[in-house]
Amino acid sequence: MPITVNLDDIRDAAAIIAGSVVRTPTVYSPSLSKLFGCELSLKLETQQHTSSFKERGALTKLTGLSADERRRGIIAMSAGNHAQGVAYHAARLGIPATIVMPETTPFSKIERTRSHGARVVLSGRTLADCRAETERLIAENGLVLVHPYDDPDIIRGQGTVGLEIIEDAPDIDTLVVPIGGGGLISGIAIAARALKPGIRVIGVQVDSFPSMYQAIHGLPATSGGSTLAEGIAVKYPGQLTQPVVSELVEDIVLVPERAIERAVQILIEEQRLVAEGAGAAGIAALIHAPERFAGHRVATVICGGNIDSRILASVMMRGLVRDGRLVRLRIEISDEPGVLATVASVIGETGGNIVEVYHQRLFQDVPVKLAELDTVVETRNAEHVREIVSRFAALGLNARLLGTSAIDGEVI
């Protein structure tokens, strides 16, 4: 199948969306550049009205509808960013919008979509389950489908990201772009390779959803499971996007779930930037395969910032545990006055901060005159934890670590 979008199409899309979609900045990150050993810039699509690049393609598509199509209304099938981008710009243009979402969609995403004036229909447990309901509504009401990625207008709208990156950071030699259905990377690759033929375009997928990688390599489809990067958790890539990726994208890096989680954490701690799992996928590629990018001038798209607050809090706390900055110590003590104060003094004198304490007398397999004290302690790093444990040992108290930590690279 030939590539159906060219640089002029993308430039036309840029003119269409100008003034209605945020022209987001491409910013250089000194701290992340030092961390990964490359010159790294970030394209901040999190600054869009709905915190995602999806607005670009949605507005390009909606602007091209005929008067009759606008009157009939549009429909989209999405669990998140595409839904909000379509709903937001449909409301601006006075176009009735119906969004079909899985019944398992978080309440916050449903309400944000409704807040833009869209009619939300909940159907099935997964996005794939929504297809039958979407097709039924199209047949019954004559609605116009706004596909999330397999549409030339969507591809050329997303390609405006590439135009802006090359304009703002003309010296880059490598682009790292998350892949779901392939609309974003297709548009960016078409624009970037037309403007800089020698530029490398590298895709990123989470390894539990390697749908595009498998499609272009002729491998059996295996996508499925739970992932923090739900925005790129697409089981079947686009038919229009596959040939673009095959021709213009140098490679696709498959990253593990832990790299996605770590990327979200690093963006907050090093860049003070909130990104969802899919939005941080480019950073996950740098974490997982830093040798691929060392010494290069790299730009990656932080393509979305719609992460659930509860999930974000969990990611940050898990990161502290992984780095040895939040640990759980189990200390065997004699059940007598003053010992608890000694434990608190040791932790305080070594600079630790006690977050929680669990004093176990009844339900542990220990002698009746002993007890086990579980303490959650905030520390500076893994070396600090070892210092605290050593201090307890010097006092004749047995302290051991529970759970998973980065200390000595082992599970403890």
UniProtKB/TrEMBL annotation:
Keywords: Lyase, Pyridoxal phosphate. Residues 328-412 form the ACT domain. It comes from Thalassobaculum fulvum. Its cofactor is pyridoxal 5'-phosphate. GO terms for molecular function: L-serine ammonia-lyase activity; pyridoxal phosphate binding; threonine deaminase activity. Belongs to the serine/threonine dehydratase family. NCBIfam families: ilvA_1Cterm, PRK07334.1. This is Threonine ammonia-lyase. The keyword Metal-binding does not apply.
